[in-house]
Amino acid sequence: MNSRSVSIVRKLVSSDEMTLSGLAASAEVSERTIRNDLDEISAFLTSKGLSAPCYSSGGRVSLSDNPAEVETALLSLGFDSYHLSREERTVCAAILLVSNSGYLTLSQIADTLLVSRTTIIKEIDDIKAFITGSGLEAVSYPSKGIRVDGAESAKRAFLLKLLASVEGEDRQDSLDRQLPVQAGDRIVIRKLLSEQELRHGCSFSEDSFHELVIYLRIMVSRNLQGEFMEAQPVDENDAYLMAQDILRSVSQYCGITTTVDEVRYLSLLLDGARYLKRSGGRRDAPRVQVLTRRFIERISDELGCDLNGDFEFFENLSNHLDSVLRPEPVNYPDTPVIHEVIEDNSDVLEAVRSCDAIISTFAGRELTELEIDYIVLHVCAALERKKNKEIAFHVALVCGAGIGTSQLLLEKLKKHFNFRIVDILSSHEVGSINPKDVDLVISTVPLRHCKIDHVVVSPLLTDEDYIHVGAKIDTLRNSRNLPSRIEDEVPSAKGLIDRLAPAVREADPGHAPAVMKAVRRVVRDYFREPCTVADDVLSPYLHQLLPGSHIRLDVACDDWRDAVRASAQVLLDEGYIEPSYIDAMIANIEENGPYVVLSKGFAVPHEGIDQGSLETGMSLIRLTAPVPFDADELDPVEFVCCMSAPDHKTHLKAFFNLVNLLRDDAFKESLRQAVTPADAASAIERFEYSLS
Hints:
A hairpin with a 2-residue loop joins strand 12 (597-599) and strand 13 (602-603). The protein contains 29 helices and 15 strands. Helix 28 (665-673) packs antiparallel against helix 29. The strands form five sheets. It has a five-stranded mixed beta sheet with strand order 11-14-15-13-12. Strands 8-7-9-10 form a four-stranded parallel beta sheet, with helices on one face. It has a two-stranded antiparallel ribbon with strand order 1-2. The two termini are 59 Å apart. The protein is of the alpha/beta class. The protein folds into six domains: 3-75, Orthogonal Bundle (Arc Repressor Mutant, subunit A); 86-277, no CATH class; 285-387, Orthogonal Bundle (PTS-regulatory domain, PRD), CATH 1.10.1790; 389-488, Rossmann fold; 493-526, no CATH class; 542-690, Mannitol-specific EII, Chain A.
């Protein structure tokens, strides 16, 4: 078996539609070569007690055994039964040398890879060149062997890059058996890392979580050999405490001793990781969120499609830009999905490129092509969500991870697509689906024998998944005469709450917020839907942060600095902020300019996390006479709303709604006409409820 043979088996496992000609085309070899490969595959499978591949009419090739059994057989491949190519031998030998703390002889390398010493002698120059290209040096010592010299950080980065490219945890286990370069129980380390995610209120992307587990196992292996991280710069970033907690638990369970430099290096990896959610965030998170809003407004104009109302787009993109806006580019995975999206959405790519100066100016550098591609991905996902809310399909949901995962996926789908979920099934029940009842199957596991159009997604329903689902819908719409499903709209908790809210506000305006809070809980309980964070005050709305007690009208100020101080006075008096927060806001504007002026005549001064903000809050002043903030056409400023944000997320809903309200001139006019703070608070609540 070689790499091409293994690739053929994996194709046969994932699909029963493969043909000799298709396999030959994908491998860029002749059909005769594929037949020879299939003979080799047959011998391997029969040696494992499995059936050989089957041939049928039209040159079709398939496997008759259970896919899981075939995968298990592949994982048993070792150097004794898998024929390494020259390139693969170079990588494996390099991993052996870099991961070893001492010397390795050519004979030892040859014995591990099960090849002759002569073969390694012929290839040693290529192996050394491969290592040297990564900032390390492979040096031969007479009578001792070969040793790799270089910084410990460079060695670990080299190993991480190679090992993280191995797909699948089972493949990692197989590699561990052949090249034991990682230590520590993988399951234990995954559990420890998951616990720290929960403790620190964050969630890594799948790729970042995978890489961090590998890095921690590399670190354990190196530490057990007596190899520790060299001195690191004293820069305790936002991830330092989490790195400290992770290494404390890993040290306890894996029997190693870590150093402060190990913590600092891990904190750099955490700081550059991709997150699905991150409650802590960077210290300048509010500024990143302002930047995100401006980008969304600009891209909406470029595309002629209003994306300002998509809170998930705003939240996801601001989290993503949190990792983009760093001095050095993040090494995002370059996947085929990205290239497919870019190829199919050249207009969105051009629109993003025309707007990327907003981001690159903030970052202080030009964005890489891959960074731009990932922003395109987020924009495309928002476009799909907007477009497909108007399409009604009957959908069956297939999950392989239990009822909890299926309900999570169900809620996400219902939120962004006009789907009628007709059934939730396990994969073995797919054959029982009546095609007349279901237009589309959405599954979290591969489906080999599903005769209905289907798409496989992650249980987390990522932006990539939104695009895949949207593309499948477009294909169905264009290729089939689907029955109209609009009349089948199913009552939902959100729909009922939206209908009740205006009536409650009209009947009892004074008690409407408290009544609606109770109504939301009862209705969601009836529909058996979980209460969202926004249903409680954990993620408050704008009107909840700006009651009458937090509003001052007709305040006299001499200049913008005086206005910032006056806008913060209520929050200071009530203990939301420390005095240093006010000085930090002023210094922020002096350093970064008047970006806090979000709309003509309206400023939202703020500072970053850990700058003196104690509690999430807002306070608004209306000036007697507007003052300039040096914001060009947005001057002079008439309203100043101070925002206190002690974390990355709690204020997001309120801030999102405020920015959308500022796009409505009638909202600002209502604040001008308010006679009392209570009038202003009532106007804020009324306009916020009107947001779609």
